[in-house]
Specification:
Blueprint lengths: L10 E4 L4 E4 L26 E9 L2 E9 L24 E5 L3 E4 L3 E7 L2 E6 L12 E4 L2 E7 L2 E7 L8 H18 L7 E7 L6 E2 L4 E5 H4 L8 H17 L7 E2 L5 H19 L5 H15 L15 H6 L3 H18 L1 H15 L3 E2 L1 H12 L3 H10 L4 E7 L6 E8 L13 E9 L2 E9 L3 E5 L6 E5 L9 E4 L1 H6 L10 H17 L4 H10 L6 H17 L6 H18 L10 H10 L1
Parallel strand pairs: 11-12, 12-14, 15-16, 17-23
Antiparallel strand pairs: 1-2, 3-4, 4-9, 5-8, 6-9, 7-8, 10-11, 13-14, 17-18, 18-21, 19-20, 19-22
Bound molecules: zinc ion (ZN).
């Protein structure tokens, strides 16, 4: 303390609280003091803190070291106020075997080699949270590209050097797009993307030195499917979004972790969709959304924003509700206030809180300022209570121009549960030969809506592009009016969304199974993969959970008629109407 040593007895460790307390003999005088700590430790084995990793090089196993700190493992490597609100600057110096590459958040400023070892000192970081610090030591080779003044490098093991190109393209696109989106350039002089041989998460957004497990970063150009490429692009973009949203502006406490992850999830899909529209990125988001739609209909679900005290509570928050329900809520809010106002609000928020810490309310305030709409009220409804509503729509007039909307909490088993939301509903409808959108806020149990325009309304679908985190139910007339054709009418994601809704309602017992089966037949012209997967998965569940054995033959014929032509399109052999069809459906749905 202030240059003088402290006796060992002045240190008191509390393992349960993960803290060390320094007890001084004398009270300290008011003013500025300096505390210097030195310590030693061992490399961890469990992919937490600073840990040992092993990799093969030219037939020999070598030891590498990497870090993973989020959420509460920086304290395993160094004593610190290891909570996101205690931001600090870091000057890191590493010493390791000279044959290895040593990396940290910032570029190296000096390097010296001595006795087979090397010491690298890195530039001082900006003000940042402890969980974002990182170091790496491994036999790594670089592929670098300059993007808008930033050195972007993908680091791989030498044997994988040929698989870095796609990640570099994805990172370049993400960095350019996000520099523009946030209207605030990326803050560090370099951005490393490192393929880590042993990594517990998919990826980690350490500021300036992002870590990935191999499969989330590397793409073998000869073998990898478009689906795998899309997943890599999403992960790379997600981590780069965090360089702003999470790293530059950080949550005060882990109860707002959801905002960090929800935002990165949603914006990554948006950026990747713009880059490669042919990948149908939002269709894959919809498939991902079905998981939390299922979980959140169970009695055991939780509100997104929930209390987190211990390290275990915090770890439990990294789930589908945090990432995907959270991401859908942001998308729903963007749809409600409009893309322009949403972007403006995000820019305001980033500028106002750069290098600081925030709560979710700070984002809602900025979005309200930019849009003049009640974003906070909507967000609090969706974050503070568990579950989601079923929005039922019925026509009040023969021309379908006048509708009634009602909401009720949706549960998987049909049990009654309380819940009321301010629901931004995007109604897609066709009137006068044109498909239009009408956005309303359903914030009471029931409301009447008049669709703009004149003449009869051909059809209405109340969750345009499946942007909302709710289920929809249509009355018989509205369901029958939906077009089955693929060219005009419902988008692919809406067709699969509608079937998911009908299937969930049938399972919950609130709508007859026949409505679902008839709709399957109706959309059988859609032989694309998402619809086929949805159909196959539902048929398998239906067979396993609901089928009367006496109906097995008829059911198999039904499944065969529905899926048979698709097998032929996909190059399968001749079909017989037996249970083999269902076995194939099972394999497909797995
Ligand atoms: Zn993330």
């Amino acid at each position: 303390m202030d240059g003088a040593g402290l006796p060992p007895a002045s240190l008191r460790a509390d393992a349960a609280a993960e803290t060390v307390t320094l007890v001084l003999g004398e009270p300290l005088a008011a003013g500025r003091h300096t505390l210097e700590l030195s310590w030693t430790g061992e490399l961890g084995k469990h992919m937490k803190g600073l840990y040992q990793s092993k990799a093969e090089h030219e037939g020999k196993t070598e030891n590498y070291a990497f870090t993973h700190f989020e959420p509460t493992d920086a304290r395993r490597m160094f004593p610190s106020f290891d909570e996101p609100e205690f931001k600090a600057v870091f000057r890191t110096t590493l010493t390791g075997p000279a044959k290895l590459t040593l990396l940290s958040n910032m570029p190296a400023v000096s390097e010296s080699v001595h006795d087979g070892m090397k010491t690298v000192a890195f530039a001082q970081t900006p003000l940042m949270s402890t969980y974002l610090l990182a170091v790496a030591a491994g036999r790594l080779v670089p592929q670098t590209r300059k993007v808008e003044g930033v050195d972007v490098t993908v680091w791989t093991r030498p044997s994988e050097a040929g698989q870095a190109g796609f990640a570099l393209d994805a990172a370049e696109h993400a960095l350019r797009s996000l520099n523009a989106y946030f209207a605030l350039p990326y803050k560090l002089p370099k951005m490393d993307l490192v393929a880590v041989p042993d990594f517990s998460a998919g990826a980690m957004e350490n500021w300036g030195v992002i870590f990935f497990r191999d499969s989330a970063l590397l793409v073998d150009p000869k073998l990898t499917s478009p689906r795998a490429k899309r997943a890599v692009a999403e992960t790379v973009t997600h981590e780069i979004v965090h360089q702003w949203f999470g790293n530059l502006v950080t949550m005060k406490w882990w109860n707002d972790l959801w905002l960090n992850e929800a935002f990165a999830t949603w914006l990554a899909y948006k950026v990747v969709d713009r880059w490669k529209p042919e990948w149908n990125t939002w269709l894959s988001f919809d498939a991902r959304r079905q998981g939390p739609l299922g979980v959140d209909a169970l009695a055991s679900t939780r509100a997104i924003r929930s209390k987190a005290v211990s390290s275990a509570d915090i770890r439990a928050m990294f789930d589908g509700l945090t990432y995907t329900k959270g991401g859908t809520i942001l998308r729903m809010i963007e749809g409600f206030i409009g893309e322009e106002a949403f972007t403006e609000g995000v820019r305001l928020y980033m500028k106002r809180h750069a290098y600081g810490n925030t709560e979710a309310d700070d984002l809602w305030a900025a979005l309200e300022e930019a849009s003049g709409k009640p974003v906070g009220r909507i967000a609090r409804d969706w974050l503070g209570q568990p579950g989601y509503p079923l929005v039922k729509v019925s026509a009040l007039s023969a021309d379908r121009g006048h509708l009634r909307l009602t909401q009720k909490r949706f549960t998987a088993d049909g049990r009654a549960e309380a819940g009321r939301w301010a629901v931004p509903v995007q109604l897609a409808y066709e009137r006068g030969g044109k498909v239009r959108t009408h956005v309303v806020l359903l914030d009471s149990e029931t409301a009447e809506v008049t669709l703009p325009g004149t003449g009869p309304v051909a059809w209405v679908y109340p969750n345009k592009a499946e942007t909302g985190f709710f289920r929809v139910g249509l009355d018989e007339d509205l369901l029958a009016a939906l077009p089955s054709g693929l060219e005009k009418g419902l988008a692919g994601v809406e067709r699969t969304g509608l079937l998911s809704n009908l299937w969930a309602e049938a399972q919950a017992g609130s709508s007859p199974m026949t409505r679902f089966l008839e709709s399957l037949t109706r959309f059988k012209a859609d032989t694309g993969r998402p619809m086929t997967e949805k159909t196959a998965a539902a048929l398998v569940e239906l067979q396993d959970g609901f089928l009367d054995p006496a109906d097995a033959g008829r059911f198999a014929r039904f499944a065969s008629e529905l899926l048979g032509p698709r097998w032929k399109d996909w190059g399968y052999g001749k079909l017989s109407d037996d249970e083999a069809n269902i076995a194939r459906a099972s394999a497909l749905a797995a």
